[in-house]
Amino acid sequence: MCLAALAKQSIAPSEYEVLIGIDGPDQTSIAAAKSSWGTHKAHLEIVPCPKAGLNATRNAALRKARGRYLISINDDIVPEPNFLEAHLRAHQQAEAKGQPAIISGYSPFVDFPNPTIFDRLAQHTSMLFFYDQMLGEKARPANHDWGFRHCWGLNFSAPLAAVREVGAFTAIPMLYGYDDIEIAWRLNRRYQMPVLFVPEARADHDHRYQPRDIIKREYNLGLTAWHFAELNPGFAQDVFKRDIRSAAELAYSREFISREESAAKRLEQSFLDLADIPASSIEAPQSNGTNPHTAPLLNLIYEQHLLLKRYHWRRGLLAASSQSGR
To answer: Residue 246, Cβ neighbours under 10 Å: how many?
Structure first.
């Protein structure tokens, strides 16, 4: 679906190219990509790579790029027909004002069949992304700098030469997370690039998370945070506002896990149950066609999961520190 959508863009085929990094031997994916692309005239290049993880693969594809701008996407998004045009126009407007920028596009989750409360949490809260804040009642003007934490690898763009100049993506084999906001941090530090949100650069996200995925994700983010704090201490300090590799932080993490373990286990079961509760249970329409209680209830459920999130993130941090001999 992603490639088929990229083959139907509003800009001319001569104005863009598509590079696909293949992480490890995968002839099935290569054949599927060629079949999906068909005879479209835009340049398509498939870059097979040794199994080395997402960012090593990204960097291998990036080295072959020939354009002025890099647009980073995931294979589970479905770009709108004006997706590339919106990214391009935003860069041209920023540069006309004398300030190159990072463009963060809009990738809301698709509507899945038989939605659950958990699906709605992913769609309408900050559990995974911050689109609810960026499009909310306090949304900022188009030139607002949202900061490096609002740059996500599934849909962002930046000047290609600048991405190369700062050393491309940090590749930590087989670890997950922080790579996208870390490169945005480096681009901002080197070129003072703001992160501009352009909702017209829309590509819906066809990825159905489950509660266990979020638990695993938070644990993995804790693991990765440890390594980024070693490789780029300035970035980690700006993200976490403290030294997460310090003895004091590790001692606090051990205390937190010990103190909150029983509460986290209770929360975990109720969190897992959200995948089995239909969204209609909190979306029953009122006389005006909408339920004014839905958003507050979703926010309440979101806030309830934060302790669980912190518990598993700290578990991951401690696991990484233990692996390193701390």
So the answer is: 11
**Alpha carbon distance 263, 228 (integer Å):** 29
Quote the distance between the C-alpha of residue 24 and its chain's center: 22
Tokens 């992160």 — which residue?
Answer: 195
| Number of residues written out for the chain | 326
Q: Are residues 32 and 150 in the same domain?
A: yes
Alpha-carbon distance of 235 to 231, in angstroms, equals 9
pLDDT tens for 101-115 read 999 999 999 999 999
Model confidence at 286, pLDDT cuts 50, 70, 90, reads low
Quickly list H helices, the chain. Answer: 2-6, 27-37, 54-62, 83-96, 117-124, 131-134, 160-165, 179-191, 211-231, 233-240, 247-273, 280-283, 294-304, 306-323
DSSP letter for each residue of 149-177: GG--TTEEEEEHHHHHHTTS----TT--S
Q: In terms of domains, do 68 and 161 share one?
A: yes
Residues 222 and 83 reside in one and the same domain: no
| Same domain membership, residue 254 and residue 168 | no
Could you report how far apart the first and last alpha carbons of the chain are, in Å?
45
- Between 117-124 and 294-304, two packed helices, what is the crossing angle to 10 degrees? 90
> Of 75, 69, 88, 105, whose CA–CA distance to 4 is shortest?
75
